[in-house]
Structure prediction request, 169 residues.
Amino acid sequence: MTWAWFALVEDAEGADLAATMCELDGTPAGVLAAWRRRAKPLRGARRIHDSVLDPDGAAAFVSLVLPPPGVRLPFDDLAVQQARRAVLLDRPPDAVSTLLTDASHFEGSVSAFRGADAAARAARDPFARVFPARVLTLAAGLIGRAPAPAGPTIERYGSSQPWPGDRFG
Prediction:
């Protein structure tokens, strides 16, 4: 399995990995949690590419992009495709993954940034042009570093893996 379940929750009991999140002003914003299993652990969970998850991952600034309730875009949507291209044009984030619940819809993204300009880079996340982003601080223990993704392709059907997967089922 090259994906895991991922969700922003109040309590990460039962999660395989988890880290607390805060707004930029320090206000607690919940817990990002991941479950490495086939069964969906809770209703709002989305699939994330497992390569970005790392229990030894350092703290980071994170851009978390989630669609408004009831809104879904196909991965073929030009805004989604352009956001993926824009990620590849800039210095890549330390880790990036799209989020999905089925094989053909974009259901958000998560990008982690570290370094002196991390907050500014998170604020420029190309996926924030698709849906509003929340730039948050993430404690250590959830997201590591992953290789820069390969160039995006257009997935019409069967894209059962979150991008930046190296193959589609």
The chain is about 10% helix and 30% strand. The first helix runs from residue 78 to 89. The mean pLDDT is 90.
